[in-house]
Amino acid sequence: MTLRQLMASTPLHVALGFAAMGGWAMWANAAHGPRAMLLAGLVQGAISGALTLGLKRSVDWMRPRFQRAPGYWAPPLIAICGSALLLVTAHGLAGTPEIAATIAVPLAVSVSYIFAYNILRQRAAARDTRG
Q: Model pTM?
C-alpha cells in the first residue's frame, strides 16, 4: 500500500479519529474519576470514528449540489453543524461532566479536516472538468 493510498484510507481515518479524540475526551474528564473518564473516551471515540465517516460521505454527497463558491463552504458548514448537535446531545445523554472541554478539540479538528478535505476535492473536481 502506498502512502497516498494509506492517506486516503477511510478505515484508517476512522480508527485515528476514535483513538485521538477518545484519548482527548479521557484527558478532559480525568478530574471526574475513572468511570467518567472512560465513558467520555468511549462515547467521544465512537462518535469521532462515525463522524469521520459521516463527514466525508455527507460532504461528498452535498458538494455536487452546490455551484461555485457555495460548494467550498456550504457542505462542510452544514456537516459540522450536524456534528456539533450530535456531540452535545450524545455527551449530554451519557452524562459527560465536561461537555464543552470534551468536544472543543474534536470539533476544531473536524472543522479543519472537513474544510480542507472539501476544498481539495472541490479543486480536484474543477481540474477534472477543465481537462
A: 0.75
